[in-house]
Design brief:
heterodimer; A: mainly beta; four-stranded antiparallel β-sheet; globular; B: mainly beta; six-stranded mixed β-sheet; 0% helix; 57% strand
Chain lengths: 116, 115
């Protein structure tokens, strides 16, 4: 199994530009999570999907952030327009999570975003 | 309210010494417990988990953790650490809610192993 795949691994962009981060979850997993990690705020859950449907997006910082999951094998996190304070490592994770059952999440390697 | 607290932000320790990383949680519902490790410039990987049964759980790389329900704790231990154990460790608690499980991560503890 290839694990969770994220691209790009590093992204440097200028303030105001659109940024799109991509994630391919582990085949067969039905839940997908986007996290942001910074020194100041630690690991924050931004949004999670179950069976391609957004369940909880309360962690999305503002309207500049949007996430989609058009099918079970692909998700995107978009920031438009980007700002320097968006600089962070963004992780995607997936799990097989039947409702009510315990589950563990499998993390991708992350995308390090730098907005100048 | 559900919360997870890792009491130490950094723990320095000499090689071959024992270590304990502390994790406490607050919950009025059932929980499942996890420890993850993050090596520099990598994603998080599962170290061990407690779902049910024996309260002493063994994981990879010689780590173990003990679930203490009365103290709402799930401390991580290793009897003898190696330089390669230097990493950040995250405690995570899955709270069993009516609408499904919610996984909450602690702030992390950086373990620095010195020679």
């Amino acid at each position: 199994d290839a694990g969770v795949i994220q691209s790009p691994r590093h992204e440097v962009t200028e303030m105001g530009q659109e940024v799109t981060l991509r994630c391919k979850p582990i085949s067969g997993h039905n839940s997908l999570f986007w996290y942001r990690q910074t020194m100041m705020r630690g690991l924050e859950l931004l949004i999670y999907f179950n069976n391609n449907v957004p369940i909880d997006d309360s962690g999305m910082p503002e309207d500049r952030f949007s996430a989609k999951m058009p099918n079970a094998s692909f998700s995107t996190l978009k920031i438009q327009p980007s700002e320097p304070r968006d600089s962070a490592v963004y992780f995607c994770a997936s799990s097989l999570a039947p409702r009510g059952a315990p589950y563990e999440q499998y993390f991708g390697p992350g995308t390090r975003l730098t907005v100048t | 309210a559900q919360s997870v607290t890792q009491l130490d932000s950094q723990v320095p320790v000499f090689e071959e010494a024992p270590v304990e990383l502390r994790c406490n949680y607050s919950s009025s519902v059932s929980v499942y417990l996890f420890w993850y490790v993050q090596y520099p410039n990598q994603g998080l990987q599962l170290l061990l988990k407690y779902l049910s049964g024996s309260t002493l759980v063994k994981g990879i790389n010689g780590f173990e953790a003990e679930f203490n329900k009365s103290q709402t704790s799930f401390h991580l231990r290793k009897p003898s650490v190696h330089i390669s154990d230097t990493a950040e460790y995250f405690c995570a608690v899955s709270f069993v809610l009516e609408y499904g499980n919610k996984l909450v991560f602690g702030a992390g503890t950086i373990l620095r192993v010195k020679s």
